[in-house]
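In response to reviewer comment 3 from the previous cycle, which asked for concrete evidence that the modeling workflow produces usable outputs, we include below a single protein chain processed end to end. The sequence was submitted unchanged, and the resulting structure tokens are shown without manual editing.
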Amino acid sequence: MSTTTAATAAPVVEMTGITIEFPGVKALDGVDLTLRPGEVHALMGENGAGKSTLIKALTGVYQIDAGRIVVSGAEHRFTRTRDSQDAGISTVYQEVNLCSNLSVAENIMLGHEIRFGPFINWPATRRKAREYLALLNLDIDPSSALSSHSIAVQQLCAIARAMVVDAKVLILDEPTSSLDKAEVAELFDVIRSLRDKGVAILFVSHFLDQIYEITDRLTILRNGRLISEHLTKELPRMELISAMIGRSSEALADVEARAHRVVSEHDEAPLLQAVALGRDGSVEPFDLDVYAGEIVGVAGLLGSGRTEVARLLYGADKGGSGKLTFDGTTRGAAPLTSIKRGVAFSSEDRKKEGIIGDLTVRENIALAMQASRGPWRPIPAKELDAVVDRYMKALNVYPANPNMLIKNLSGGNQQKVLLARWLATAPRLIILDEPTRGIDVGAKAEIQRLVAELAADGMGVVFISSELDEVLRLSQRVVVMRDRQKIGEITNGPDVTSTTILETIAASGSAS
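The workflow returned the following structure tokens.
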């Protein structure tokens, strides 16, 4: 179905004035969304914009407090996910929700098997599964184990299962996050095929290049409110970014020149050097130098590859390509190797990858220090007490009780304990991924002050934050990421503002 035809077709979904309130917060405030048959529609917005909440309203996970949901001309009040599915709405989530221990056919036809009386007719079920696979141009054995196939094939199997219910609307939530370029191209062929068959597709992605490649129309949300709806081809990239984050684009110019600004010269050798460092399906190869006493910021929109860069530099992710050296010596890609060489990494997910809630503050601080020494060299109690006391005072951890369970501390104080853990190892380079996210203003200011002091004392710092002003406030240089590629490196200075970062992100041509 052509874009022109889709634009004039009757909407398959009309969400009007959708409002959802949680205790103390209005997650959606009068949001509208229209999906048309034969059209790929992007739902855009930063974290907390309301995208997930709106999808959950459409799929029956959340009940709306106000507004109307009309599907194929009939008003619906979804109270469970089955209601939405019965109306012809299917969802494929970022994490493939399939049973890897079952066959391809069993996954695709689950709950819709062909039966002969009370028994499942497996040959017929497998033949039917093959028909749905053929719709996606996927030629694999339906009886093969799902686990034997790549993530990309599993993603297509999830779409095939969604089509079993004769979906009028297909919601794809970050479907390309684990795919390489070739797999993305295959998926896009499938999406176009489904679009041409009249399916309305709601596409959620943080990859701007993909948005402009595959979508026909887009809706922008910010802070739970509808900002605007556009034909994708008519909305310049910079205006899209500005609408998402609420910044004016009037002063944006000279994009290409600023996207390739020259980094100032250093007399000494870099402390850490990455050459063509990358990982398939994670981040494209990039070069990066970090010098002693320097804070290098990493900026980009959500999903741009900031965290993937941090994990590769530290060695938390395996299977990367390229070369990584520290202090002139090639470094193996393993966290323990990094710790022993003097490289520390504080993850953005302090709940899952940082604190251990059922251990005390003292025990949490000791973890990395003990790991660097090995299991057979326990830290003497007197030495550990001195280290814990030193860093709890330096970071103003409150309450000042090292024997308190860390899970009972505020988010800001948990973050301080994580920093204390890594500073106790006396690192020469520290990688901080969103160290101030979700903490109060006072704790944020203290952590920013500490980062500046560490660099002044000669430590190299890689600083990642979604707050552009924070990156600029602290960094001497800023690496700019988009769509999991390094697209620019900017030397900070009086004339560099958050607008400079935004125009680099929006750069086209050679920076695309």
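The longest helix spans residues 181-196. We consider this sufficient to address the reviewer's concern, and the full set will be provided in the supplementary archive.
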